[in-house]
Amino acid sequence: MKYPMTKQGAEALESELKHLKSTMRPQITQAIAEARELGDLKENAEYHAAREQQGMVEARIRDIEGRLANAQVIDVTSIPPTGKIIFGTTVEIVNVDTDESVVYQIVGDDEADIKIGKISVSSPIARALIGKEVDDVVAVKTPGGVVEYEILEVSHK
Length: 157
Fold this sequence. Notes:
157 residues, two-stranded parallel ribbon, Chitinase A, domain 3, alpha/beta, Helix Hairpins, transcription regulation
């Protein structure tokens, strides 16, 4: 099964993967070699720390490779805007009751980070927004009750 991912999300993972393989791997290999030269490996804290770091880096490399292999990369900037909210679009919405507006980009689960305005496509608010367009009002069930949002803007950036 393929999982949606924005082009920016895929590029960030590819960049991290390149860093892990070209910088971190050689550094850890060097640290292990230097620690081995210190002698007895049983009580060699540097050796054990380097081996533990190596395990974490290799696990992260496998994780990223798996995510990229199962990603369906969607570049929203290459899709002609129709005014409808789709995966990857950036939307500005306003809370009908409080008049407070927010801007979100709808992204894949792995990319979601509410602090920088990226919400998961599977989140309740994104599910309510998908397929809607400017001036539509959507009702979103939140822990505090139902909140209504009016869609102010939809952009492909």
